[in-house]
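Amino acid chain
________________
===
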Amino acid sequence: MYHRGMTRTNMDIPATCAWVTTLVLLCWLAFGASAPQAAPATGNTSTSNVEPTLEVLVFSKTAGFRHASIPDGIKAIRELGRAGEKGVDGTTFKVTATEDSTIFNRDSLPGFDAVVFLSTTGDILDQKQQEAFEAYIRDGGGYVGVHAAADTEYSWPWYGKLVGAYFKGHPRIQPADVIVEDRTHRSTRMLPGIWNRTDEWYVYRENPRARVRVLASLDETTYEGGGMNGDHPIAWYHEFDGGRSWYTGGGHTSESFREPLFRAHILGGILWAADAKDVPPGRIREPAKDDDESPVDDVDEKRQSTSSSPG
């Protein structure tokens, strides 16, 4: 209906819009309805659903000094375990992180390919738990010691031989040159011959060189407070009492666990200790991160039996 004040052009607009809408609908029916529909997004396009090939226990109980970097270390090891082919090695692993020492029993430990002592300190296992861990190593298990793992269980001589050397002291945090003595090992082949990095550099009560295979040592002329008369191993490995032991003195700082080379160093140590099949190294790159994970797991499902003594 034509009203006063309405121009002829304005009056035609509704008819035009209706015609355009009809045309669009016809085109969609002719061409769009039969087009294949895209699969709905699942929200998870990473490769983290690859079935892990190994089980790794990360143990971080402390009875002495507690390192603020422990949560960073757990997070980094979880990320390395998920990375698989995206990391420097092709083996994925599931991480169980705990400070509950009752998991050190003869039923639970055989379920792990390697046990990481992540900056543990002091006396953290009772006698039964120590015996269970000794049996695990003698049955071919793998041990990884990170940083303050050398500041642990001074009254347990077997552990001292396993880790390789006990902590004595340290100077201030500072940069130093790390001399990579073995560039063929799985944990050091990605490193430069001279690796300059910042950390808290441990001094050890005895030089472990005669008992272990040294991977890297510190150039004491490049920092203050060396304390080992110029021969200062800082990372090593050895086969011990039927099992495999790998240790690195790095890892005091939280920043260490964000360094790609240090992460690759840790990954290689874990895989060597777990006796994982070796593969040609790949390009080092950061894995996808999951910031929502709790750093420590509930280990009840892994613990089949517990010790009668408190841990």
